């Protein structure tokens, strides 16, 4: 028998008809050694009756000494799980839990916010779940996020590149424990800060396949929503967006162009006139909910007073004006995030999810205290390399997102100098314009999404 990546592979002595079963058995044996652990959930606190779809939770050990336990939720396709695409979904942050993707974004369940009475939150089915046509792994990454934890305190030190390495390990080991999905087409999806790690992860997966790592991952492409990509485009776009939306005057915009010369960040400017114009800009926009400028500014999304983890943190936290609520107003979308704290910190919920006792303290939707190094500044070159290798991609932007505005995303795509094969046009839903799209050579598609409920993180879309 041949040996690949430490796994004995069947050779000529094994009947071709039995070979796939032998491979699956050997890979499963390796997974047992690598501490892959998952359990199916038939019932879930907050949902009445048995779950009408396959939901699994578990841990996968990663790291040099397998000292890191990455927690995941897996929702199987409700259509044809044997053939439908398998998504690995990355939540932004860094440090925001995968539960956001599962409950607030693209998963099969939503909290019933209207019926919330301060007891254990209840669920309703999401009729627009992506699991109607695909299987999705939602992973708490990096370590220290959600229910993911480390057995060694030193292992909590992480960053962009280390997170990519751990996610690569995670996916291959998860597939070892789920050999029935090895042949499915695989896509990596994410939003926001994931734009700085996801393209590198896709390249790592493709390189790993070329190096003969097992199991081979049938990677087909990636999906990114409102992604951070390159500061030269992302961080200058809000001024362009604000002017285009009529949020600042023509006079201030012209003055900004003149004094700041296209560089609209405080950290980059030493010009006093530019600084004054930037201050005027922020005064004009500070009262906006920048994740979706049509929404009211609420900002408060934590169970702890004084803690604010809205739709963005870290690099773009300065866009928020923190306001404390006088009461729980669920008319504000971000207040709805508080239900996740009530649910995940309930003992019965943790038992149902098979959370290991003592592994973490209070659950947080976004961990603002990660020991995290932002060591990737731009992923432009990775997009170019992936496109050259024939990797398909969909890049979409909400047209009212001011955190990573569509103008900046369009600009960096334009800088790649791809030829256009399907020019700018509308795309429709139920006979109505839902946004606009353009398709480029090398398999890249850009789309805007026109929706009042589409925010920076694709919430409630």
UniProtKB/TrEMBL annotation:
One of its GO terms (molecular function) is serine-type carboxypeptidase activity. It holds the Pfam family Peptidase_S10. It comes from the Eukaryota. Gene3D superfamilies: alpha/beta hydrolase. Signal peptide: none annotated. GO terms for biological process: proteolysis; secondary metabolic process. Keywords: Glycoprotein, Signal. The keyword Oxidoreductase does not apply. Belongs to the peptidase S10 family. This is Serine carboxypeptidase-like 19. It comes from Eucalyptus grandis.
């Amino acid at each position: 028998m041949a040996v690949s990546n430490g796994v004995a592979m069947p050779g000529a002595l094994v009947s071709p008809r039995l070979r796939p079963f032998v491979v699956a058995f050997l890979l499963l044996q390796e997974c047992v050694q690598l501490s892959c652990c998952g359990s199916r959930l038939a019932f879930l606190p907050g949902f009445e009756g048995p779950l009408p779809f396959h939901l699994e939770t578990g841990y996968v050990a990663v790291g040099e000494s397998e000292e890191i336990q990455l927690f995941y939720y897996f929702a199987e396709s409700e259509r044809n799980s044997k053939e439908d695409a398998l998504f690995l979904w990355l939540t932004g942050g860094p440090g925001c839990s995968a539960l956001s993707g599962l409950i607030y974004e693209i998963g099969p369940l939503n909290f019933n916010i209207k019926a919330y009475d301060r007891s254990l939150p209840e669920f309703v089915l999401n009729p627009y779940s992506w699991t109607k046509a695909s299987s999705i792994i939602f992973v708490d990454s990096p370590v220290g996020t959600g229910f993911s934890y480390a057995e060694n305190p030193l292992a909590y030190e992480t960053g962009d590149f280390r997170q990519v390495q751990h996610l690569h390990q995670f996916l291959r080991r998860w597939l070892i424990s789920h050999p029935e999905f090895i042949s499915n087409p695989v896509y990596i999806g994410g939003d926001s800060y994931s734009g700085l790690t996801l393209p590198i992860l896709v390249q790592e997966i493709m390189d790993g396949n070329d190096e003969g790592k097992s199991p081979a991952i049938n990677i087909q492409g990636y999906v990114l929503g409102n992604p951070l990509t390159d500061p030269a485009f992302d961080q200058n776009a809000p001024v362009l967006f604000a002017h285009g939306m009529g949020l600042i005057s023509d006079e201030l915009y012209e003055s900004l162009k003149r004094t700041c010369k296209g560089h609209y960040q405080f950290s980059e400017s030493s010009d006093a006139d530019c600084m004054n114009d930037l201050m005027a800009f922020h005064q004009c926009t500070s009262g906006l909910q920048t994740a979706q400028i049509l929404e009211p500014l609420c900002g408060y999304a934590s169970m702890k007073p004084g803690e604010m983890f809205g739709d963005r943190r870290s690099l773009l936290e300065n866009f928020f004006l923190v306001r404390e609520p006088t009461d729980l107003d669920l008319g504000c979308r971000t207040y709805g995030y508080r239900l996740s704290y009530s649910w995940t910190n309930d003992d019965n919920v943790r038992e149902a999810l098979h959370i290991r006792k003592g592994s973490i303290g209070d659950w947080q939707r976004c961990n603002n205290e990660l020991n995290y190094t932002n060591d990737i500044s731009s992923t432009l070159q990775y997009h170019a390399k992936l496109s050259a290798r024939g990797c398909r991609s969909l890049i979409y932007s909400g047209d009212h997102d001011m955190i990573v505005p569509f103008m900046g995303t369009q600009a960096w795509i334009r800088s790649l100098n791809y030829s256009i094969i399907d020019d700018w046009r509308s795309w429709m839903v139920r006979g109505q314009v839902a946004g606009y799209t353009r398709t480029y050579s090398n398999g890249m598609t850009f789309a805007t999404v026109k929706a009042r409920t589409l925010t920076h993180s694709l919430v409630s879309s």
